[in-house]
Amino acid sequence: MANRHGDFIWYELLTNDADAAARFYGAVIGWQGRAAEGSDRGYRIFGIGGTDVGGFMPLPDGAERAGMRPTWLGYIAVENVDAAAADIVRDGGVQHMPPTDIPGVGRFAMLTDPQGVMFYIMRGAIDGTSTSFDQSKVGHCNWNELATTDPQAALAFYRARFGWEKGDAMPMGEMGDYQFIDHGGRTIGAVMKRTPDGPPPAWTFYFGVENIDTAAQAVSGHGGTIHYGPAEVPGGVFIIVASDPQGAIFGLVGPRKA
């Protein structure tokens, strides 16, 4: 079955040291990196168990001088990239890369939401199903979390664009609610208010690991920084929020094993 409009279908790391990123995530998550066939942009693929789960590539020329830092971005499936991009811009988003074709892969565009959070939209060239987001598998993304300046406005924006629905919510005191996002009959992530002293508004993607403590040790042992956790969350699993040696923020989720 092809992915639905509004599904997360791919994850991509923009970095200033692709070789170092391949070593780091290989040690922490168990990903294998390889060059993407036919790419002239230095694009590479992260895979695990024979399945591709994401990509990574050097930051575009001039991006660092313009203030862009290494970051993880998500791709959201749409039926029509051109129409979706125009709709996003009409609703207060900004287009940073116009709808563009990648031969044999699909058509995509890069935009930011009205709060300034960057993401991609994409329509694949074939009707295969992406399993980059799969909460049952280690090495795949298990959770998509948006920290933003205006959670209610952001939620309304994404609901209108992608058909997401409000699920349950967990009160967080002065921070408001941790609002779960449902799509296609499952909970895919959450929206929350950005902490005043935290990073800029952004999506954080949590990748599944077999053992959260082993993964945390690998993060620290290979030059990354843990900002939060390991902390238990509903479901009896644990999370950490970390940054890789180049500064890109990501999350990990998994059980604690003796």
Automatic annotation (TrEMBL):
<protein>
    <submittedName>
        <fullName>VOC family protein</fullName>
    </submittedName>
</protein>
<dbReference type="InterPro" id="IPR029068">
    <property type="entry name" value="Glyas_Bleomycin-R_OHBP_Dase"/>
</dbReference>
<dbReference type="InterPro" id="IPR052164">
    <property type="entry name" value="Anthracycline_SecMetBiosynth"/>
</dbReference>
<feature type="domain" description="VOC">
    <location>
        <begin position="7"/>
        <end position="124"/>
    </location>
</feature>
<dbReference type="InterPro" id="IPR037523">
    <property type="entry name" value="VOC_core"/>
</dbReference>
<dbReference type="Pfam" id="PF00903">
    <property type="entry name" value="Glyoxalase"/>
</dbReference>
<dbReference type="InterPro" id="IPR004360">
    <property type="entry name" value="Glyas_Fos-R_dOase_dom"/>
</dbReference>
<feature type="domain" description="VOC">
    <location>
        <begin position="137"/>
        <end position="255"/>
    </location>
</feature>
